[in-house]
Amino acid sequence: SHGHCMTMGTASTMACMVESLGMALPGNAAIPAVDGRRNILARASGRRIVQMVKDNLVMSQILTRQAFENAIKVNAAIGGSTNAVIHLLAIAGRIGVKLNLDDWDALGHALPCLVDLQPSGRHLMEDFYYAGGLPAVIRELGPLLNRDALTVNGNTLWDNCKDAPNWNREVIHAFDEPFKPHAGIAVLRGNLSPDGAVIKPSAATPALLKHTGRAVVFEDSEDMHRRLDDESLDVDEHCVLVLKNCGPRGYPGMAEAGNMPLPPKVLRKGITDMVRISDARMSGTAYGTVVLHVTPEAAAGGPLALVQNGDMVELDVEARKLHLHVSDEELARRRAAWQPPAPPMERGWTRLYFEHVQQANLGADMDFLVGKSGAAVPKDNH
Q1: Which tens digits make up the pLDDT trace of 131-173?
Q2: Do the Cβ atoms of 104 and 85 come closer than 8 Å?
Q3: Which of 8, 25, 93, 217 has the fewest CB neighbours in a 10 Å radius?
């Protein structure tokens, strides 16, 4: 409906993250925009904000390490977007909570997906809400969560959800009868991603989760759009599509360019998925065997910048491995010849962003915005 993400894309994922963090009233994440209960909850939220000010209940009391752990686990259970990784890392950085990329793998990789919802499943967010919404999912995860995590209504997360009904088991599955057995974000490392990369296994083709193929390299998004449809492109379904310079600095702004389309000559064979690797993000509505957020990014001099056409690239999700089969000596030779990109602008906010944005594994936030600072009251300037 209007103003509502109908699938578990990034918008709906982050609404679920906010509720699981305790920063929204129970049920907020999934109410359709045209449902009258959205207006009721909006009014209740406004009243609660006023009371929170009176009670001096501040964000740092709610956004604790325990709250972020809960959100990571909930993200797995709902089949949430890979964009949640960057957003939660950035939020944790702003509030002063120690959270890193490996926490996503350690806390969520073995958890099942409980929600049969597009793009991983069949149903829509409207169905999710009428089946019980996020409180029903949290109730299923109960034993695994930090139940005493505080929320904005003054109650714990478990107090809010322990009696939540589940009206439709076809949409929200029981924990011991999950929709998919493994759903969390997997963090990959290797000589191609020394600081980490991410993949969403529940959205990938199982047969491609362990794959070695020849790299077909695109230097940036313009190069990809210019050459991908070219019938003379030397590519087949066994290749690995590699996209550079689409990270925080390279694009700039880390666009959702990572879910590269497949070449037409491959699509005509009936192939619907290939391994794709980039330093970009992708939409939460996208799916496929797509490795994202490779860090350091190409524009920052990461190994991704050194990949050439014909290099063999190995992906092994179970082993958490992303490896470029090129010798250290050859990589050193390529690095010596590599030239860093010039800033996209010589002045202004874009130049400031280019010089201060962090890498994806740190949340892609500005480095000078990290750290809990509170709400400073400026001096009277009259």
Answers
A1: 999 999 999 999 999 999 999 999 999 999 999 999 999 999 9
A2: yes
A3: 25
Q: Which residue has the tokens 């702003």?
A: 94
Among 31, 57, 52, 53, residue whose Cα is nearest residue 42: 31
Q: Where are the domains of the chain?
A: 10-161, 186-337
At 87, the pLDDT band (50, 70, 90 cuts) reads very high
* pLDDT at position 61: 96
Average pLDDT over residues 317-344: 95
Q: Both tokens of residue 137?
A: 């999912």
Phi, psi of 66 (to 5 degrees): -60, -40
User: Percent of the chain scored above 70 by pLDDT?
Assistant: 99
Of 101, 94, 129, 171, nearest to 16 by C-alpha is 129
Q: CA triplet 177, 210, 326: central angle to 5 degrees?
A: 150
Question: What pTM did the predictor assign?
Answer: 0.94
Closest by alpha carbon to 283, among 261, 267, 304, 259? 259
Are the C-beta atoms of residues 279 and 302 closer than 8 Å to each other? yes
pLDDT at 155: 97
The DSSP element (H or E) to which 126 belongs, if any, is helix 125-131
pLDDT, residue 119, reads 86
Domain boundaries 186-337, corresponding CATH code: 3.50.30.80
Strands ordered across the beta sheet of 210-218 = 290-291, 275-278, 240-243, 210-218, 312-316, 321-324
Distance CA 298, CA 316 (A): 21
E strand residue ranges, 257-319: 275-278, 290-291, 312-316
Cα–Cα dist 120/202, whole Å: 7
Q: Assess contact for 227 and 261: CB atoms under 8 A.
A: no
Q: How many CB atoms lie within 10 A of CB 292?
A: 30
pLDDT of 25-62, one tens digit each? Answer: 999 999 998 899 999 999 999 999 999 999 999 999 99
Distances (CA, A) of 38 to 4, 9, 26, 34: 11, 19, 12, 7
Whether 183 and 113 have beta carbons less than 8 Å apart is answered as yes
| Catalytically annotated residues | 283
Name 339's Cβ contacts closer than 8 Å, sequence gap at least 6: none
Q: Which two tokens stand for residue 24?
A: 């929204």
